[in-house]
Amino acid sequence: MPVLAALIAIVAGMLNTVQAGANATLNKALGEPILTALVVSAANAVVYLAAVPFVGLGWPGGGRLAQVPWWAWLGGAMGGAYVLAMIVLAGRLGAAVFTGLTVTAGLVTSVLLDHYGWVGFAQHPAGLWRILGCGLMVGGVALISLF
Q1: What radius of gyration do the chain's Cα atoms show?
Q2: What start and end residues bound the annotated signal peptide (predicted)?
Q3: Exposed (0-12), middle (13-18) or buried (19+): which is 98, by Cβ within 10 Å?
Q4: What burial class does residue 59 get, using C-beta atoms within 10 Å of its C-beta: 0-12 exposed, 13-18 middle, 19+ buried?
């Protein structure tokens, strides 16, 4: 794994946790979860547009659009559902529990997706160590939730 990619992933994970607190605080101040989600989405758009000079922006042709699997179009909706859950629940659950639950659920789901090669991922068998790692994550979240 390239070191730079790993460092960027670590920073993204840290930002994701801080984002939960920022979004929950914004929701508390505004008192409107949907308005909060729209503000968050607008801020996302600003970041995406600011990244254009670095990563570019192009429009695929119709033939390429027709090749996209139906489920791939749902990623944005899934992201929106996650952000809305973050806005509503992170403040109630706390950073550790909310992040622990979402990261653990994501890890268990990713091991399943890797094992079966679903939704475009390469197949990686869910061997004993991966399953044990998932179990340890569940145990860790249980400990964080209880104490």
Answers
A1: 18
A2: 1-22
A3: buried
A4: exposed
For residues 20 and 87, the answer to whether their CB atoms sit within 8 Å is: no
The pLDDT tens digits for 97-141 are 999 999 999 999 999 999 999 999 999 999 999 999 999 999 999
Instruction: Give the residue from 103, 98, 106 showing the smallest Cα distance to 24.
Output: 98
Half-sphere exposure of 143 (CA within 13 A, CB side): 6
Q: Could you tell me the two tokens for 140?
A: 């860790």
* Residue range(s) defining the domain that contains residue 74: 3-146
Concatenate the DSSP letters of all residues of 42-66 into one string: HHHHHHHHHHHHHH------HHHHH
Report the domain count for the chain. Answer: 1
